[in-house]
């Protein structure tokens, strides 16, 4: 069972509902335990997260793998949410013991780790080499980041 990949996740609404639950839990944990800082907006972050799933869906469509939408998005959403919860845990539990900078670096490393994880999932879904999957995930991450910063800046004005 542990050798199965993300392409073996069942195309099930129940699995998607579980992944959505994890996503909502990760945003709730982030809002309650970490809160919004002066340079963040959870609503905008949620919108950017949803937009990334649309981009992954477009990648599946372009590669003729639209039938893999449910398991792929469920896998990306669940894994990303678990890593987001890990980020919150790192900030909450390590923050009192480590410097703010070191805690931020650990949280940022967890954020960066999402890229190869999501890249692996999308690569397996479109049956391409994992390098291409990481390139796709990195591109989506950069697009998300740029759009988030641009919208955050325009919201501040």
Description:
The chain is mostly helical and 157 residues long. It has one domain. 78% of the residues lie in helices and 0% in strands. It has five helices and no strands. It has helices at residues 13-34, 42-62, 69-94, 100-126, 130-156. The longest helix has 27 residues, at 100-126. The radius of gyration is 16 Å and the shape is globular. The termini are far apart. The mean pLDDT is 87.
Q: Give a quick account of the main beta sheet: strands, pairing sense, barrel closure.
A: none
| H-E string | HHHHH
Mean pLDDT: 87
Q: What is the domain tally?
A: 1
Structural class: mainly alpha
Question: Nearest-angstrom radius of gyration?
Answer: 16 Å
Helix content: over 70%
Q: Uncertain runs with pLDDT below 50, 5 residues or more? A: none
Q: Describe the global form.
A: globular
Oligomer: single chain
What amount of the residues lies in strands?
A: under 5%
**Straight-line N-to-C gap:** 52 Å
Number of helical regions: 5
Give the key terms.
single chain; 157 residues; mainly alpha; 5 helices; 78% helix
How is this structure best summarized?
The protein has 157 residues and is an all-alpha fold. The chain contains five helices and no strands. It has one domain.
């Amino acid at each position: 069972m542990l050798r199965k990949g993300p392409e073996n996740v069942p195309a099930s609404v129940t699995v998607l509902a579980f992944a959505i639950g994890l996503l909502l839990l990760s945003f709730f944990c982030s809002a309650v335990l970490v809160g919004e800082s002066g340079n963040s907006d959870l609503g905008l972050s949620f919108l950017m997260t949803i937009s990334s799933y649309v981009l992954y869906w477009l990648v599946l469509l372009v590669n003729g793998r639209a039938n893999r939408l449910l398991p792929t998005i469920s896998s990306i959403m669940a894994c990303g949410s678990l890593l987001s919860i890990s980020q919150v845990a790192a900030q909450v539990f390590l923050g009192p013991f480590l410097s703010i900078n070191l805690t931020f670096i650990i949280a940022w490393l967890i954020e960066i780790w999402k890229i190869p994880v999501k890249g692996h999932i999308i690569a397996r879904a479109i049956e391409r080499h994992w390098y291409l999957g990481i390139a796709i995930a990195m591109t989506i991450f950069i697009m998300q980041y740029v759009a988030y910063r641009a919208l955050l800046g325009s919201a501040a004005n």
